Amino acid sequence: MTRRDIALWAAQILLGAFIVFMALAKLVGSPSSVEIFHQIGWGHWFRYVTGAVELAGGVGLMIPRVAGPAALGLVGVMIGATLTNLTIDRPAMAVLTVLLCIAFAFIAKVRWSSTKFLVEHIRR
Fold first, then answer.
1. What is the pLDDT of residue 102?
2. Pick from 123, 111, 30: which is nearest to 73 by CA?
């Protein structure tokens, strides 16, 4: 394993742990998460769905075979989060979600061969 591989896996584990932490805050109903989703106006069901998707993506980042698809899915989540943060006037959080989106896009690009393999395997 090269230094690059080790650094990439370390980043994936740290980002995965961060996303899992954020997902759990949504799923257990932390006051700040409840308030944010109240501002969005879509109800608690959307907080639960978002938390579940983030949890799956965060855990997926730490599993070699699904790290690429997980990162790709989290790109979509971060695009939605960025648009939402801009809509409810949270520019600092929008900057964070853009940076996370860039990190996940990089991981998805580097892990693209495993993503292609998984898609081809599913098609068979």
1. 98
2. 111
CB atoms within 10 A of CB 106: 14
Query: Which is nearest to 75 in space by CA: 98, 93, 55, 91?
Result: 98
Q: CB neighbours (10 Å) of residue 6? A: 10
What per-residue confidence (pLDDT) applies to 124?
A: 78
Tokens of 43: 């109800």
Domain limits, the chain: 3-123
Cα atoms found within 13 Å of the Cα of residue 96, Cβ hemisphere only: 11
pLDDT of residue 117: 77
The three-state DSSP-derived secondary structure of the chain is: CCHHHHHHHHHHHHHHHHHHHHHHHHHHCCHHHHHHHHHHCCCHHHHHHHHHHHHHHHHHCCCHHHHHHHHHHHHHHHHHHHHHHHHCCCHHHHHHHHHHHHHHHHHHHHCHHHHHHHHHHHHC
Q: Which of 51, 47, 58 has the alpha carbon at shortest distance from 14?
A: 58
pLDDT beneath 50: ranges in the chain = none
